[in-house]
Amino acid sequence: MSNLLLEADHLFFSYEGESAFALNDLSLKIPKGKKIACMGSNGSGKSTFFLCCNGIRRPQKGRLLFDGRPFDYSKKGLLQLRRQTGIVFQDPDTQLFSSSVFQEIAFGPLNLGEAPEVVRKKTEEIMERLGLSSFADKPVHALSGGQKKLVAIADILVMEPRLLILDEPASALDPLHTGLIRDIIQGIADQGVTILMATHDVDYAYHWADEILLFHAGRILEKGSPASVFSNRALLKQTSLTQPSVLSLFFRLCETGLLSPALPMPRTFEDITCYLQHSGQI
Hints:
- The protein has helices at residues 46-53, 75-84, 101-111, 116-129, 145-157, 175-190, 202-208, 226-230, 233-238, 245-255, 269-278; strands spanning 4-13, 23-31, 35-39, 61-66, 69-70, 85-88, 163-167, 194-198, 211-216, 219-224.
- The chain has 282 residues and is α/β, with parallel strands linked by helices.
- The strands form two sheets. Strands 6-7-8-3-9-10 form a six-stranded mixed β-sheet, sandwiched between helices.
């Protein structure tokens, strides 16, 4: 049995009226159960690729496979795909439309024909899990930005997806809601759900992700572990990214002779502190 959940095979896509390709011969393979950070400058193809993964956009050339099967773009096929592949947009206002939080979260499974009593139970469980129970009857438009983002995530989780796609989930959020959203995302990953996340936060991506995908000019420029990708300064410059603070400090300490470059790449500042303690520097 294959360990691949999603495969993109030589995808090409361009928007109407534009000569340049938003996706330009993009190929990649996404294993099951991984946390993958998709990074790159604006316009590099991340959001377009996400829309193709959910069937909202269809590549003009190439093919996508989910769990080994080519995408079926019939109405029935897309419904099945979207039960397993959920996308949370950067701006939740583009996703939310119901009059109350409960109705918003319950809409998806009801639209797929699930029994009302089953949907009610699932919706109440998701609201409790995300701390939204007290907002059940509140109009969606009256929520704060952070609360709307939580509802948008609940919209997808109630469908019990196998692949969760997040486009800048912490964008424009205060530190409290950013931490809350990230804790929820980690909890989802701990349940074995595969996660694709677009983010510009290199420090968070370095600490969180199992794998980094660097997008550039509509294709995958590099794919690898956080340590290998973020150690490559030339690649980071090409994709308008900076090096994570932990790695920058580590390399500086190695240059000054306080630490050995043979040490494993640190993932946290606590790792660096341990290295310094063991070397007798502190």
